[in-house]
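During the no-cost extension, the postdoctoral fellow (Dr. R.K.) reprocessed legacy sequence entries with the updated structure-token encoder. One reprocessed record is reproduced below for audit purposes.
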Amino acid sequence: MKVCQKVRAKGTTTYNEVADELVAELCPPGAAASPDQQYEQKNIRRRVYDALNVLMAMQIISKERKRIQWLGLAAPPAEDSPDLEQEKADCRQRISEKTQQLKDLVLRQIAFKNLVERNKALEETEGPPEAGSSVQLPFLVVNTKKKTVIDCSISSDKREYLFNFNDTFEIHDDIEVLKRMGMTLGLDSGTCGEEDLGKAAAMLPPSLAAFIEQVALEAAGALDGPEPSPDRLDRPLDQLETTWESP
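Re-encoded structure tokens follow.
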């Protein structure tokens, strides 16, 4: 760096000029006759020679006989910049997607563990559920108005279902229902208190403690979002009545 700075400041110079100045700067005066000092001066001159060869190989300087000319530091090609910016944006997008996936898995884990605890507590006080009164995971809830006409078609192998509605409707998966039931301890809605946060952290590996705090803070900061659409149904999903009819 010192050799580069010297040549850059001078513009045009020679090896001896650069070496002499660096020897004068780096070696204390009055000790030129000592063997150690002579060795140090020769070492500095060798380093200057090596540094000049490196700068010349990088086309930062040019050399013609004893004359050394400063050319300048090479700037990266302009066409590389958009590619690097795009690569950076792609990396940020992948990180964001992976973070969201981890958040979904964490909330699902907490919801399932809370559901298991709730069901165990209910069984201890009220006994096991009656046959046909429980819903198995995974499931989907279709929510619509009572007067909506629904046409349902089922494939022969019962692996595909086709629904047609003549009015608006909503479809919620099991994790959404568990969120509405409070099984995620308010981590998704920004209403998670200190006690619930500690309970949620205890359900996860210690390495995720900081992440769960981040999820809670982000959700709390998102409370000032847009109001829900008036077309959405206001009745909580955990209060919906389910009726099963034989085909």
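The beta strands are 12-13, 61-64, 67-70, 140-144, 150-154, 161-165, 169-173. The CA atoms of residues 64 and 214 lie 61 Å apart. The remaining legacy entries will be reprocessed before the final report is submitted.
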